[in-house]
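Q: How would the structure tokens look for this protein?
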Amino acid sequence: MYIHHPATHDLTVASGKGRSGARHSGELQTKLTMWLGVTRHRLGALLGLVVVIFCPGPARAHDASVWGGLFRTRDAGATWVGLNPGSFVSGALALAVSPVNPHHLLLATDTGVSRSRNGGRDWTLEAPDVLGGPAFAAAFDVDGQRALITARLALFAHEDGRWSAVRAPAGSLPARILVARPVRGSVYLAGQRGLYRSDDWGQSWLDVGRALPAPTSVRAVVVSRTDAQSVYVVADGRCWVSADAGRHWDSRGEGAPEGRMEALVPDPGDANRLWSVADGQVLRSDDEGRRWRPIGQRVPEAPLRAHALVVADQVLVLATDRGVYRSPDGGARWMLASDSLPAHLDAGMLTRDPADRDTFYAGFAVTPSDALAERELEAAGMLAQLTPDKLAKALPFLTLVLLAAVAGAWRLATYVAASRSAPR
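A: Here is the predicted structure in token form.
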């Protein structure tokens, strides 16, 4: 039987053993409050504040619409299935599919890198001591034997079963895009600023973005399937084409909104056809980007930011900052794919299976990739300000704080041990 005492707001148990346990608990609580110099109610408020600080968000683990992750479709976006490694992934930021084995996947997430060799059924965490933290881009070499990952503010190459850091172009990290060319060892890197090409898998880099407008923000890179020298990019909202692997560039975009182009993808069946998106409107070029025309209707919830586009015959699938939209009829009608996908969450990645045009992957993130990159840059800036002189000046204070914390923990442990050993 429980008895409530309004005057003290305590809850005790009306039995001999219960009274003894409550008295022992009360003695311990009294000692703690006397030692801390606060009342029991203030102690409770303090503990509540600690809980709020360490758990700042509401518990939404059962709401599938608020968590990110990796999803796959095999029917051009009609249905989707989750492929998340482990029990929880809040951000799938990039995915590389091996060009020689479509079941071999390399997934970059906001907490690290995972690998699957069976199409996403099972995952292994890749070198967490090396690749820990957010990873932003991933690519396989054309033969599938090597890989590149940009993680935090570093670039890593995988070869002969191990990951090792390689030098990245100055100011490029964290890189947004890694795209391999159909030439072994050759890859494009689109950084925070600039565009670069490596022909020795990251050992050295050539600045191929010099002829592009400055400041250059490259949002898409497409390498021609039929000509290894031809590359298309979206830079500062315009389409640019190079016929010599980035040495020279031509601006193309007749009919497209000036400075508004976002995603850029090749057509899976026509080598001369390109697709893009501007202000929620899908655009198509049938002459390698020279002239563009709108296709279908604008996505109904525009304005939105388009990250990627996939085309499968008449089906258009668009990844945006508000989720994934699908049109089954060439853009005449658009629907938000929300039955089995996170709704209104940033879908920053859409990657096609190189062996099957109807199979592709969508990645969602609670915190978008750009926001994570900004955090990494801000953290690096703060660390750069910690000069040896500043650390030397702060050392006495940090030592005092550490000693106080150790003394407080020891004193609390002493009180708890004494209370447990006291006769009951």
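Residues 1-65 have pLDDT under 50 and may be disordered.

The longest helix spans residues 388-421.

Upvote if useful.
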